[in-house]
Amino acid sequence: MSNYRSVLLIAFIFLLPILTFSQQLDSIMNIYANNYPQEKAYVQFDKKIYSPGETLWFKAYIFTGADPSLFSKNFYTELSDADGNIIERKVSPIMEATSAGNYDLPKTVKSRHLHFRAYTTWMTNFDTAFYFERDIKIYDKKLDSATVAAVPPPQGARIQFFPEGGDMVAGVESAVAFKANDQYGLPVSVKGVLQDGKGKELLSFGSVHDGMGKFTITPEKGDSLIAVWKDEHGVERKTGLPGVRPQGVILRTISGNQKVLFSVARSAEGAEFKHLIIIGHMHQHLVYKAKINLDENFMSGGTIPTAQLPTGVLQITVFNDQEIPLAERVVFVNNNEYSFFPEMAILNKNVNKRGNNALQIEVPDTLKTNLSIAVTDATADGEFPSDDNIISHLLLLGDIRGYVHNPYYYFSNISDSTSGYLDLVMMTHGWRRFKWDQVAKGKLPVIRNPEQDYLSLKVEVLGIDPYKIAKDESLNVIMSKKDSSTQMLQVPHQSGIKFGLTGLVFFDTAKVYYQFNTNRRLSDEAAITFNNGLVRGGRMARALSQTYDGWTAEDSMYLRRNKFVAQEAARIQPITDQKVKTLESVTVKGRVKSDAEKLDEKYTSGMFSGGDAYTFDLVNDPYAVSMMDIFQYLQGKVAGLQITTANGPGGSPSLSWRGSTPTLYLNEMQVDPQQLQSTPVSDVAMVKVFRPGSGVGFGGGAGGVIAVYTRKGGDEKRNDANFKGLPRATLVGYAVMKEFYVPNYLENNPENEKEDIRTTLYWKPFLLTDKDNRKVSIKFFNNDITKKLRVVLEGVSEDGKLTHIEKIIQ
Q1: 369: which residues sit within 8 A by CB, 6+ positions away?
Q2: pLDDT single digits (tens) 519-528
Q3: For the chain, how are helix, strand and coil distributed in percent, rounded to 5?
């Protein structure tokens, strides 16, 4: 476990008696650390580049601070298109701070990117900027090296300036960092001069690494500083710097060996800057605190020992005695204690066609470890090391805001220059801030979605008065799962019309047969709804409109192989299809009415009955209850019907069909969109959508008609041979995770006759070791075309140490 030691004595600072605010900081920080842990996630994918229709495999690692998180139990992932429309959303269980899953990518992708987003239930209560986000590159058959080379050169470069500690103060020397990037957010090199408001040149500056650099200046009161600079294409621009405060406090730091040196300087004016408090905190743990007396001095300094801290982001804040934050700075503490080093031995190497390969992973430590490994075609997936991995993401990116270019570079060596460049990253990026004004008032975060113990069985009894439900009533439940197993449960009464149980783990869907333990007539008198307790997602994710095509000159090296694989897949498919035998047609002389037809007879009347319409049976659709409202449910289900919402999820809906607006009905009474939107999807039994000009509804339905019907008693009832006579419902569980298929070419199997052009040759999301089993072996066969293999091993030990290993085998 991480060790956070608070240090209260430092050199060169005059310590004052601890005041009320200081005590309050201690108390609030302890509350945050114990009750509001901040989670972060890293996701390993099987490879970097995918083709439409392929399977994307992933393994997630969830941390709280510097340790594997034991807090969250549910992991949410979303795959969206370039416009932010969510294609698919899945939920997986978290076991020992890890989770895994897969997505079958659409066979048709309009853009050359899809977007992957991931988070836990607990993370939804805080800033979404700290969700895991990754753009997934999708190979397009129209994409080749020429089109990549033809990507428009960067334009619209801009530069931002970041005074150290937050502000420049007149008469006080300040360090100012800067960051320059193009319209895609990628770094550009710049050089320029700084001028005062009269055009006088004060100094020159230039970027030193990935568009970043810094300079020092002592501004004068009233200065309006302007940077005149040129980008790498020689285009000259002018940018104003942040304003100069007439009085205030400057915080400056220098990171050293197992320590951080800092200085605090104040302006000559301002009595409120003489008595200060400085604190340092990491992962919401208070690790340093001191009082600074600047009655007689304009500047003081000190040392924060960091030898006992874990590697990560340390935040330093200076307050006045009125509890107002005056300056803030983040630094990176690197004690190089964050890794463990498994040995990867090649037991058998054979890169010939369908060659048999074997690797052995040995962990030298006796601690438990949880690893994942991917083996891919290096010619298609890339030979260069990953620019972001489990180390750079969990130690750096998970705790700061904004894009960082090639983050793993800062962990590739421990040279002074690399440390200096990393400090520029810290000066030019945001971080997970506290709202200090709320802290001073003792206000705590509002938790909208408390973490739960895996899946829940939440039950509501609708259509009867709550007084009919006895306090000691319970619900007897039999869960029949997809694997044919059953589970007997007793769901206790919580309050009013609600019953509930937590701690369930099952996949796909389950049939839920139920009966009230005491008053069994309730099943006939009421409508019973079931919910799995998961957080409902929004309709939209982050759109990719601000990012460019994403393919670089480096990627162009792998396009030839991806193009060849795509062409071969297209050639093989017709051959495979010819081998598929189709069943002879059978003449059906009679049929049983579908559930949708039965619902139509039960609910509709008059002009709404029958007819040429889209009919949706929500009673038998287990995924319907996961939708925010009926409009989200209908999106994409009816050709030509356009449904959009203003201001994102939950916004006011707008509908259009062939240039007109559909008429809306609830139980055959005309309503407006807001009334329909406020109707819970769990209450809806059926939706009928009539095409424009159908003649249904008032006015003839020129823009089409959407008729929604709410449930009646008995809609949830189902009979099954095993539980005859019991009412039944369907409950959605966790997403089913496919098993990665590894062909065995030593066996005589007709499937082995197929041409093998797989680019992911092996994927194993869970390689587990402990003191008794420190070695793990894997075996896999090469495909028909690969001559160079890329192996990526990542993982975590139970004490939070990380590993990342990449190898090329050829």
Answers
A1: 340, 342, 363, 768, 769, 770, 795, 796, 797, 798, 803
A2: 888 878 888 8
A3: 15, 40, 45
> Which CATH fold would you assign to the domain 620-710?
Ferric Hydroxamate Uptake Protein; Chain A, domain 1 (2.170.130)
- pLDDT digit string (tens) for 733-770? 999 999 999 999 998 888 888 899 899 999 999 999 99
Please give the torsion angle defined by the CA atoms of residues 591, 595, 598 and 602, in that order, rounded to the nearest 10 degrees.
Answer: 180
Report the number of secondary-structure helices (H) and strands (E) in the chain. 12, 46
Superfamily covering domain 39-146: Macroglobulin (MG2) domain (2.60.40.1930)
Tokens matching residue 778: 């894997």
The number of angstroms, rounded, from the C-alpha of 223 to the middle of its chain's C-alpha atoms is 43
Q: Are 731 and 753 in contact (CB under 8 A)?
A: no
Residue type, 794: E
DSSP string computed for 310-325: PSEEEEEEEEETTS-E
Residue 165, token pair as written in the block: 């500690």
Three-state DSSP class for 779?
Answer: strand
Q: Which residues of 270-281 are buried (b: 16+ CB within 10 A; e: fewer)?
A: beebbbbbbbbb
- The architecture of the domain spanning 20-25+155-335+434-440 is Sandwich (2.60)
Please check whether residue 273 is in contact with residue 249, taking contact to mean a CB–CB distance below 8 angstroms: yes
Q: Which residues of 21-39 are buried (b: 16+ CB within 10 A; e: fewer)?
A: ebeebeebbeebbeeebbb
Q: SS3 for 35-94, per residue?
A: HCCCEEEEEEECCCEECCCCEEEEEEEEEECCEECCCCCEEEEEEECCCCEEEEEEEEEC
**One-letter amino acid for residue 422 of the chain:** L
Q: Which residue has the higher pLDDT, 234 or 703?
A: 234
The H or E element that residue 677 is part of is helix 673-677
Q: What is the pLDDT of residues 103-148, one digit of tens each?
A: 999 988 888 889 999 999 999 999 888 999 999 998 876 655 445 5
pTM of the model: 0.80
Return the structure tokens found at 559: 């396009």
Q: Which two tokens stand for residue 231?
A: 């980008």
From CA 475, how far away is CA 659, in angstroms rounded? Answer: 50
